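#struct-pred
JK: can someone run the complex with zinc ion? inputs below
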Amino acid sequence: MQKTKMFKILIRVLLPVCSFLLAFIFPINLFIKIALGFTLALISTLLLHMVLKTSKLRYTSYKIMSWLFYKNSHGLNYCPCCDNHFDSFLDLELYNNPIYNPAIFKGINQKVSCPLCNSAPRHRIIATWANMNIEKLKSSKVLLFAPEISLMLWFDRNKCSVTTADLIDPIADKKIDLTSIDFKDNSYDYIFCNHVLEHVNDYKKALSELYRILTADGTLIISFPIDDTLEVTIEKPTTSNEERKQLFGQIDHLRIFGNDSIQILNNAGFEVDIMDTSDKNICPDTAPAKYDSNQIFICTKRA
Ligand SMILES: [Zn+2]
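RT: done, structure tokens with the ligand placed:
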């Protein structure tokens, strides 16, 4: 078992147990000791939950784990999100998760998850692009859909301020519907939109909103699942989780993009450059799904 995973399990068990036992050092009667023990265990569990769920505290806990376990690691697998090397990435085993269509995942290399920050290739390719553009990002207004921990670690570590947005995630700075964004025109110099477009009802409206809030010389960095065996993007309005799972790979996907993806971005008014995992050494460049082409599109407004 990976060291960090073992550490997380150990601390989840040890902290409440030790808190419970702490009550027994006090010279009080047994009944009060037990009541106090349960109270302390509950408080410590809640505090641990806060550390894991509150973004700033969570980043600090990742930094501590990184320093404890991976400071001197020189494994071949590198994660540019948390800036650590590993002997191997972790197996996601998405084919065992009922929200996914196992046919999309089975037989494909699943050893793609960073043992520390859980980044997938799609996060690491964005962090690799960000590493090449770090000075520009530091001096610009940056918007990030959505606040995934691995990317937030990159921004935190590199001291880049970023506004995070999401429709559901309570950690996000702004609650935003991508199809109706409550920002003025030309608001952000860099917008990251990582695997969101497949979830929104009207992706063309979402792209027009992203175009609108991007500054004239700004850059949209966008990615979404692409099945390169499809000539065109397919979508079908359905309320059936099972049907979405079969058609689009998972129950919360509303479409699967195809080889017309660049044309779709062109139609929204963007010039498009592509970066894919084969450009850079951010192994592994496969998976987790057969529709994960692990490309990002670097989009600028057409003159
Ligand atoms: Zn990582």
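RT: quick notes.
Residues 30-53 form the longest helix (24 residues).
The radius of gyration is 22 Å.
JK: thanks, will look after standup
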